[in-house]
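This part of the workshop introduces the protein records we will be handling. Getting from the letters to the tokens is the skill we practise here. The record below serves as our worked example for the rest of this section.

…
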Amino acid sequence: MAGPRLLIVTGMSGAGKTQAVQSLEDLGYFCVDNLPPALIPKFAELLSQANGKVDRVALVVDIRGGAFFNQVIEVLNDLTQQGYKYEILFLEASNETLVRRYKESRRRHPLDNHGEVLQVIQEERELLREIRGRANNIIETSSLTNSQLKGQIVAQYGGDRNDTNSLLITVISFGYKYGIPLDSDLVIDVRFLPNPHYIPELRCLTGNDEPVQKHVLSQDVTKEFMEKLLDFVNFLIPHYQNEGKATLMIAIGCTGGMHRSVTLANKLGDILTERNYRVNVRHRDIMRV
């Protein structure tokens, strides 16, 4: 059944749904916040009768709906059976990040009746488990600023769905001692490369600095590794595109996320950009000590 692009926005309270919806509105989406799930089929029916006047719609559905939210899976099943096409965007963040955000904003969690924020966050995560499993796209916002989240929303939902070059590739460097990025598709461990941390004049620099880049990239093992990595990535990307994947996150990790991973993330990003891919390079842990 033809109709507008219907995006269901859901996820953890405090994970950034408000910022995501604001970004979608800027992209021209017709947005409805906190719509009771039982009304979604009626809303979809109205949209199908709009004769193309509304071509992109975002509906925010989350646990603020209280008892109504329990109907969401049944409603989505009904939508599918009726031939309506939709996508689900799920936003999440770590428990620690969500607790911190609630403490900073001094807002009450929708499920909080006893003042224990961590407990209700865990309860909410369990309530959202099934719809998270159905999500077409999951964005982990723990390490994202509002502008970075907006950038991802614009990149993923701002273009033409039929654009053959619509795959957004994010190359992110990270430090293993701070954990692997939760939303990674590919995780590349480069801790086997010689570590500039043990060279006094390079220790306080990062992979954004030329001396570190020269040291890491001049190693024979690095040159051989980059050739193999590029062969691997070049093989995968067309297959991801053929499957309709909207985003690909390649996480490159070293011990602290300052030297080797940053250098190789920059290098891979430059090469993919030269090959006309849409690329976003981020360094998650470069400023940590």
